[in-house]
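Revision sheet: structure tokens.
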Amino acid sequence: MTAYGDSMSGNCYKVQLVLNMLGVEHLWQEISITKGETQTPEFLAKNPAGKIPSIELNDGRVLSESNAIMGYLAEGSELIPTDVFSKAKMYQWMFFEQYGHEPYIAVARFIQLYLGLPDDRLVEYHSLHVKGHKALAVMEAELAKQSFLCGSQLTLADIALFAYTHVAHQGGFELAHYPKINQWLIRIKQQAGFVPMES
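Predicted:
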């Protein structure tokens, strides 16, 4: 299996974590969006959407979208609950990550870390903080009740939300205000197969 991604991207890092935590044999192919490497004819032939992360199976089939890839890789593993309701809660948090968390925290990080806070993005940047802190508060409340987002078991939901939460400070989010999130971040870093995000 070949995995294509940018190691500094949270969405790609999610896939890296699952691959390593489950010990899936793979080749990691670093791809740069900024250098246009996702738009080459060769890459578009594999993945017409021109997006990363993506994985290419040994038989040539290609899968993209980070949470779909995670679900494929983790099928049958302990990262996906067997209880039907707990599994649905896992997906609830994964949808939350894509629609209520990543659009604010990841974009604020992009504006600060990659663009250097340009004047024409400052209003947007500050508005992202309001919604990003709301997302973090939702997580803090849940983690005050249990060790992981779906209970006592680490699931794909935790990996999905860990990716951009643990670098939220790079987007101007002060995580010191969220003690339960900080404890949860430590628990995830202690998991077997954990690898840090490249910087």
